[in-house]
Every structure is written in structure tokens, then in C-alpha cells.
Amino acid sequence: MNQGPQSESVSIELVDGFHAAASGRGLSSRLYAEAFGEEYPVEVDPSSSCTWSVLGEMVKRLRLRPDDLLVDLGCGRGGTGLWLARAFSARLVGVDVSPKAVELADERISEFFSSTSDLDVRDRIRFQVGTFAETGLPDQCAAGVVSMDALPFASDRDAALRELRRILRPGARAVFTGGRNLPGHPMYVPGRRSWEEYIAAAGLELEAKVDRPEERGLWDRLNDLWEAHEDELRREYGDVDTDAKLTEARNHRPGRPYRITSIFTVRA
Questions:
Q1: Residues 36-57: pLDDT tens digits?
Q2: Which residues pair with 142 in a beta bridge?
């Protein structure tokens, strides 16, 4: 479950505002750190459910080599992709629908590659505006793809997974997070296609699926903290962003016991 307006159907202004409010390691970052505890990857500074455990699973599954190209779809402010690119000594392209997210991600490059010359970094790391269905990347360019709490918000999941398959090299892997609603969830739809069905329809092979039952607790604790710090959030981020957080907390909490999020590994 993503905590932010990543959907391509949401206005760019709203998405830009979300990323601008999440940047800067202010109160929002401190509340995420408190909610996630030892699982919080401080350097990544996520506004998603990215944890040390998720990063470890991505490293385990991607199996990249130095200088391979990693693509981060729905990269947001870039933390997940930048951390992985450094861990693998890989090249990176991050793609996001939000120009503000791309700008903020670009500014964070030096946080992860401060000892590398600017010329070398710009040759190896870049962020660009694009959508899940139209990344603007060449065929079979990627040795690995990640998407952290973003791909489920694609307006057309079939098109998004076909695009993912198009940019993956034969035999290369993609790792993404996605959820499913169970009976009892307010938005449960009987017969709705599963991620496994979308994956198969795109011509991808499902290599692994790891459920994340702990994710519910992460969001519950964070939402509780948002409500407890409402006044501080309004002072630091304003009413629009704070109202969005509180509305999300109220809307998603009842359904969490009836939702499972997983880490999917697929192969071209």
C-alpha cells in the first residue's frame, strides 16, 4: 500500500505537492522512523513502505553486476533506486510521472555518490519524467527493474507490465510490491484479476512472491503518529498535505486486516 498519490490518473500538481512535502527530512521523516523502528532505512528516507527487509529481498532477487542498468519505475524522490544502484555499483534510470519528484531525486544523487565526480555520476545516474506505460526507454535496456509501492497505481496494469517486459533484457528480473484485498475489505471485488494473472498476461514469469504481513503494523503505527501530531504537521506542511494524510489514515485503517501486500519477482 503506497502512502501517496502515485496514480497516473491523479493530477500532476497533487503528486508534485506530495513529493515536495515529503522532502527535507523534517517531521514526516521523523515520524516514519519512529513508526518503522529498526526496519527504517534512514538514508533511503522513504515515503513508501520500503524497509531494510524489502531492500534485502531486492538485492537477493535482482542479482545485478557492476555497470548493469537498473530502472526504478515510479521512483519518487529516488531513495530506493539510489541505494540499490550504489549497492550493486550499477547504473540507474529513475522514471516518475512527477516533475517535482524527478527534480528532488536528482538533487539527492550527491547524498549517495558524494565521492564520485559529477561527470561520472551524470553518465551513470539520471532521473526522467515518464509513465508506467511509456517510460521513454529503449527495448531490452534494463538488467533489472524495481518499483516500490508504485506499480499498483498504474492506470493500466496490463500496459504497465507490458512496458516493464519490453525494457527488460531476456532473462532479467524485476521486483515490485503489490497488494490484494481479501473478503471483508471495503474495496474487495470478487473475481478481480490477481497480480499473478496480470504477470502471466504480460508474458512474464513469476519467479517468487514473498508476503509482507508486517506491513500492516508499519502503516498503523505511522497513521497513529500522524493523528497524534496533527498540529505539528499542519504547521510544517500546511492543511492540504495534512488533510490528505489524515484522510488516508481514516480510509485505509479499517481495511488493513483484510489486505496482504507482497514482493513479486518476475523474469522476462
A1: 999 999 999 998 999 999 999 9
A2: 168
